[in-house]
Specification:
The complex is a heterotrimer of chains A (408), B (332) and C (294). Chain A has 408 residues and is of the alpha/beta class. Chain A folds into 2 domains: 199 residues, Rossmann fold, CATH 3.40.50; 155 residues, Response regulator (Rossmann fold). Chain A is built from 14 helices and 15 strands. In chain A, the strands form 3 sheets. In chain A, strands 7-6-8-9-10-14-15 form a 7-stranded mixed sheet, with helices on both faces. In chain A, strands 2-1-3-4-5 form a 5-stranded parallel sheet, sandwiched between helices. In chain A, strand 12 and strand 13 form a beta hairpin. The longest helix of chain A has 20 residues. Chain B has a domain of 217 residues. By secondary structure, chain B is mainly alpha-helical. In chain B, helix 2 packs across helix 3 and helix 12 runs parallel beside helix 15. A two-stranded antiparallel sheet of chain B has the order 1-4. In chain B, strands 2-3 form a two-stranded antiparallel sheet. By secondary structure, chain C is mostly helical. Chain C has 11 helices and 2 strands; from the N terminus they run H-H-H-H-E-E-H-H-H-H-H-H-H. A two-stranded antiparallel sheet of chain C has the order 1-2. In chain C, strand 1 and strand 2 form a beta hairpin. Chain C is globular, with a radius of gyration of 19 Å. The chains are: A alpha/beta (408), B mainly alpha (332), C mainly alpha (294). The interface between A and C is large, with 36 and 43 residues.
Chain lengths: 408, 332, 294
Amino acid sequence: MNKHFTLACCTALLLSPLAQAQNGGPIRIGLPVPLTGPYGAEAKDQVRNAELAVAEFNEAGGLNGRKAELLVRDDKLNPGEAATRALELIEKEHVNFIVGGLSAATQLAVNNLTRQRKVLYISISQSDAINEAADFSRYTFHESLNPHMTTQAVGNFVFRKGMRIAFLTADYAYGQEMARGFRRVAADKGAIVVGEIKHPLGAADYSTFLPRLQAMKPDVLVFNNFGRDNQVSIKQAGDFGMKKTIKFVTPVLTYTARTSAGAQVYDGVVGGSAYYWSMADGTPSASAFNARYGKANGGALPSDYGSMAYSAVKSLLMAVKAAGSSDTEKVVDALAALRYDTYKGAQYYRACDHQSVQSVLVLQSVAVPARPADIFRVLATAPASEAALRSCAELGHGAAPAAVAAAK
Amino acid sequence: MINTETLPATDAAAAASQPASLFAALARQRVAATVLVLLTLPWILPNQSLAVNILIYGLYAAGFNLLFGYMGMLSFGHAAFLGLGSYTAGILIAHAGVAWWLAIALAIAASALLALVMGLLAIRTRGIYFAMVTLALSQCVYFLVYQFPLSGGENGLRGVNVPTIALPGLSLDLLDPTVKYYAFLVVVALTLAGLSRVLASPFGAVIEAVRENEMRTRACGFQVEHTKLMAFIMSGAICGLAGALNAIHLSSVAIESLHYETSGLVVMMCLLGGMGTFFGPFVGAALFLLIQDLFSQWTEHWQLYVGLIFMAFVLFFPKGVWGTILEKFHGR
Amino acid sequence: MEGITLELVGLQLFTGLALGAVYVLLAVGLSLIFGMLTIVNFAHGAFFMVGAYAGYAIYQVLPNFWLCLVAVPLAVALLGMASERLLVRPLYGRGIDYPLLLTYGLAYVMVELVRIGFGKQGLPVDTPALLQGSSDILVGQFPTYRLFVIGVTVLVLGGLWLFIERTSFGLIVRAGARDPQIVRILGVDVGKVWLIVFGLGTGIAGLAGFLSAPMQGISPEMGGSVLTVAFVVTVVGGMGSLVGAIVAGILVGVVESLAVLFFPEAAKVSMFVIMAVVLLVRPQGLFGRAGLMS
């Protein structure tokens, strides 16, 4: 198949004066997500949501009859595997675009490849790194919240002047990004950071860290970690009796973590999130999204992680429609300029780093839900604003985004 | 491993079949035979990135096989060499703008050096203790590299971009998967040629002697510790090369490549393919990667099937696929 | 470093003991199995994890923590014995590597089966009501449950000591650890001995998992991280030595705890450094027999 066929095709294309790279034929979107491993549930929900967005696009007629197609791949939460899948999607499947990634490392590995090959990539992973100049490219877009945004939203709501704040930080990029973000808000609000204890990623036992944190006598304890670490550390801190006198705060409250660890463990914990279904009260697009997702999935409600996939694919296809073509360069321009409201209110991509500017929810976990789905309570909504992002200069971007556009 | 010198030159053997003599002929030209098979991979596999992965992991397994299959020393820390090779080449290319050939050479040197250090520390132990020491030392390397600022830590190292290889009179576009595959194949072929020479040399004989009966080899006057160390270094160097190629292939290096699971991976591949055989490592790498690829498309529980298949091999086909095939046709 | 008081060090020491208790239970099981069968059980972490999940499952049917405390090790031991009889036994005599490799694959299979049965995400486990809260241990408030874990470990070790030192079966185990071949020559039904020892070792691992569950919750991956520690402890103590497993387990637990206090970055590497140093100075481990080889 490969060599001769490609050669023939290229020749034909070059010779044809009307040749455009991928006109005609389905619009193919690659979706590498970690179906295997601890985040399998989130990844599955991302797939369902992406499929919903594709279905909506196709039902509305597609792009002049051209339908969109989703190619799901399992990146096994391993950056090397994610890179291999990205290569397969680009080289063998000839996808037009790629959406995906849950862990920071996998999105960065995929992004590194896509920008080299000038393929549009929308990341749905929560990480700051992809916005920085070193990893950025014209073809890189970041739909998810990044740690900085969530810390600003949560910190703004919780911190007060004179409050004593302690950090329990996972000693890796994500944890450090969170800590940095919270420190900034604390400084803005006049709260005092009384201490920070770092723990190794994946620590099963926090009993060695908690007494020291207790000794700092904080008003607020911020858990700068994620996933299992988050569940275990909050559980153990509760076991140590710390919840009685200290307010527990975490940057991100996820639906799956809360379900996995249980109501008692997370009771009262405050955290940030991109989406919670109750946004439907007050946001028409959320309401519509809930309804459509429920219809396609037997009455279920969309989750935070999944909804980001929905938004990424939907906004991408909106850009395709706006550009009137699946040509990468045109779609990139259209997407960069797009104002969209896919599921939670107005969003757009900031010019210098293609970060989606969006609202952030501050949630609190509820111990005894009124209804099974009422696991969280919305305390506040931080509006979409570039002020919640790190400045372009801080991220290393030069004067104009065009200067950084050249794929390395 | 096929040792042609021990083939009995009797009528019985001659009548024993065409396949036997075919294998004997192949054994004499094992490098060429291996390369011939590898030449066809991009055309018979579902996708070419998989083919490159097989090359790289096959090389990794070949390096490991030198120590485990031929020398009989089970190391659970070989990820350290693969990973260090990747990170060395990666950091040099991404952060220091070093040329690809120099980066690869330095990666091999770094891995060899690490192997020297680890070897000196580990060689004095044997059996399960050797496995545990290598595991511990490689975990130390994992944590050290994790903390090293240029490695990118948990986020991995990106920017290892080698889009073209400029040779005198020829420019190879590495963004083309077919070109990349054959460029890597040249490197792998040369390495295999070297490895084959080593294995066929007196040194290679000593290596296998140590595996069969260490005390006797020592009694015969051979420097066992010295041999072990040399083998360890060579093994590390080959794995380092595989790592460097991997960094260029994926344009990034993941911290997982230093984790002990990657060490376990190569053990599984070697066993599946056939330890102590020349072609076995590639068979094992191909088999493992293909199974993983195919199964993960059907089910998210592919690890169950991989585990079951692996257990079945340990129980019923301990010589691995290639080893069993050789055994059948060679009657060994 | 500010805030480091004697009380804090004392608390941290106790934490190290609690941490070490779980390590000791795992290492004892591993050492037993290696000492008697010369098998390195790479599935030991998986049995630990299965113990935690077995506890969860049995609790649904039998909502009594104390009954589960007895039932879980038995259940896991049964599973261990089945594995030994069907999977490991056929490999005996083929060299030390094969059972090791088999158990490596077995671990994969066990983890995935648990994922299929119980989901990928992990499940919450509550501390039993009686053991909730904290107790005053002079140097400060310490979680009651962890004291319980230390207590259970001491009891189990005591029972194990009695079993090995005072029963005829224990005599066989000791003899087998010293010289497996002689035991066989003397006509002992080694098959039965292996079965029971493997069951005993894995049963204790399952118990450790059950005990850990309220402290850290359960997830299919919990066995992997704990396995490395178990190996380090067993090797430092000396493979085949129970005293070694106990001493090394406590040592690793305490050192890790104190390292967090004084050298946090090095905490995770600390156990590997200990292991590397011990093996270089005394390759057979602290209490291992010299010459215990491949």
